[in-house]
Amino acid sequence: MDIVLQQLVNGLTLGSVYGLIAIGYTMVYGIIGMINFAHGDVYMVSAYITAIALALLTFFGIESFPIILVGTLFLTVAVTGAYGWVIERIAYRPLRSSSRLSVLISAIGMSLILQNYVQLSQGANQQGVPTLLTGALRFHVGDGFVQITYMKLLILFISILGMGVLTYVIQKTKLGRMCRATQQDRKMASILGIDTDKVISTVFVIGAVMAALAGVLVTLDYGAFDFYVGFIIGIKAFTAAVLGGIGSLPGAMLGGLILGLSEALFAGLISSDYKDVFSFSLLVLILIIRPSGLLGKPEVEKV
Amino acid sequence: MSQAVGINFKKSSIDALIAGFMALVLFGPIVGVVLDGYGFNTEFVRVAWMVAAVAVGRFIMSSFFQTEKGIAMAFRYANNDEGVEVLKPGHKSKMVWIIPLVIAIGLLVPFIASKYVLTVVILGLIYVLLGLGLNIVVGLAGLLDLGFVGFYAIGAYGLALGYENLGLGFWSMLPIAALMAAVAGAILGFPVLRMHGDYLAIVTLGFGEIIRLILTNWASFTHGPNGVSAPLPTFFGLEFKRRSSDGQTFHEFFNIPYDSAYKYMFIYIVLFAVVWAVLFIKHRLVKMPIGRAWEALREDEIACRSLGLNHVLVKLSAFMLGASTGGLAGVFFATYQGFVNPSSFTFFESALILAIVVLGGMGSTLGVVIAAFCLTVLPEVLREFAEYRVLMFGILMVVMMIWKPRGIVRVTRTGFAARKGVVK
């Protein structure tokens, strides 16, 4: 019983992280219909920037945890957002009118570039950050107990906050209306005076910013990372996006939570060696059984 | 096109400044601050060089695209989707002699080359086989397969585990592995090929990873990360070992001194024959209705379906054929290494094969053969640049897609004309 509850807690935090990264996949897919293969590696870059920001802030003698957290978040979000913008500008914008296959291959190339670039400049070794926030809430359940660390609470809080702000931006602001208009019909939106190239760039930046939030939170919680972390977490976040219905923003968050919870339960109750196999099989199964996902609209293809 | 020509240096300078600033933001933290434990070392000189290179490069590019030549080039890029070049009916290539020449040189290689060169050439040929297999799937049928390495692994582990558990040797596993890979391709492809193209890429990627994770984790059957040894091929039942436990060995039978290069020579000759067979089959298939259907489906799926092509079966045939070629390559890889373990079948391997197809040209046979040798033999020659290899592949893929999405070698095809005697 306590194992199940503990895994539910772990799954909830894991799922909110998947949800944050899945937002990048789902928004980009919604707006230009491509799978941004390099998105997982944007997350990886943000993990490195987190560690670098922490090291810099510590070097300048800042020790109070809230200031470090806010400073790291700010730096990481800013630099990772710039990465998102530049990647779109270099690798995807020149291919706007090309076939989908070309764009996807270009994205794979970008993913390889990011991985190798980080490996070459930072070294291939695993890196780490010190634990900054310790302590946990404990609840006694039967004979055992369930533990929720403060870090996990922080992850939940910041991801819910991030998703809430994003939902507000997309639903209520002018920028959000422009995004939704471009998503529905890009040509019509541009006729109506929306700078669609700018909107697409903005969407890439938003995706990168969400991935950066996830990068900061996971790095602070887990501590260790290397240049290869983006690959696995990227596919899993993509699974979450497909599970919720690709193109749908609430779907990405829901998909992330479902994937995180089911993966944590699988790892806790059945086998942790095969948890990645479980997630990938889930992806294959969803695509076969219900490719439009839980909240997505079925893609109507006319012949 | 009638813009006033003249370089606006102010615009170029602003472009260069913006590019330089972005480069500073991007490279500053990652390149300039190298993590060392919980502390860091600074490398600001590297950053300065990179930022300067980006700014200067952007300035030159911005200026160039304002000149007449640059504008013409940019215009050409905007519509560079030329497709296949169609030659005149009855066109006879002047390069007919090249095929016998290549075969003759190819057959001479094992007797001239040293053992090291031979092993490099064998590796190159294995990648030619992989490139040809993926070229059917990506180049001809237009299906992006990111888990091609999964079929390669099925072939390689098929040989190793088939020998260990069932006692099957190289020759019996060669067809069985091709079949196994094709069946795996069918099981994976059949449900997925009905759907949109992009999903196939992700499903195959997931499949490749599942195969690798199972090979790593199912230790009781696959021996996990430790790997399994694979048997050598036999020459009409004669083994290529120094001493055989049962029966005669190759060198004893022919009464020649033992040389460890014999086995590589034999693998090379068999592989060479298989590559030519695959080339021949592919060459013929492209001219047959099925090959036409692959290419037509790649160009316009909706038109093909309206004309009554069963898109699932056509795609499935390409997918299975590609998979079985991958399986064949896997068998050769296992016997050449004498040993297989899961680390040979990572996603990077799939990306490398994809880079071969992209560089060589989608659907072009000659291009793929050249690209396979370039991408596998060059890293052997330029070992000091080995760590930049992945970076180069990545840049290559992005640049090729922007610059020449159809690859370096353009696909040509002889046109059709009415037969003599047919009323026009």
From TrEMBL, chain A:
Presence of keyword Cell cycle: no
Principal cellular location given in the protein's record = membrane
Pfam families cross-referenced by the UniProt entry: BPD_transp_2
The UniProt keywords, alphabetically, are: Amino-acid transport, Cell inner membrane, Cell membrane, Membrane, Transmembrane, Transmembrane helix, Transport
CC terms in the record's Gene Ontology section: plasma membrane
One BP annotation, GO:
L-alanine transport
Q: What is this protein called?
A: Amino acid/amide ABC transporter membrane protein 1, HAAT family
Please tell me the species this chain comes from: Marinomonas polaris DSM 16579
TrEMBL record, chain B:
**Keywords of the record:** Cell membrane, Membrane, Transmembrane, Transmembrane helix
The main location is: membrane
The chain positions of domain High-affinity branched-chain amino acid transport system permease LivHM N-terminal read 14-108
Molecular-function GO terms, alphabetical: branched-chain amino acid transmembrane transporter activity
Q: Does the keyword Transmembrane apply?
A: yes
Q: Which Pfam families match?
A: BPD_transp_2, DUF3382
Q: Name one GO cellular component term.
A: plasma membrane
Question: What is the membrane topology noted in the UniProt record heading this document?
Answer: Multi-pass membrane protein
Signal sequence range: none
Localization terms from the record:
Cell inner membrane
What's the protein name? Amino acid/amide ABC transporter membrane protein 2, HAAT family
What species does this protein belong to? Marinomonas polaris DSM 16579
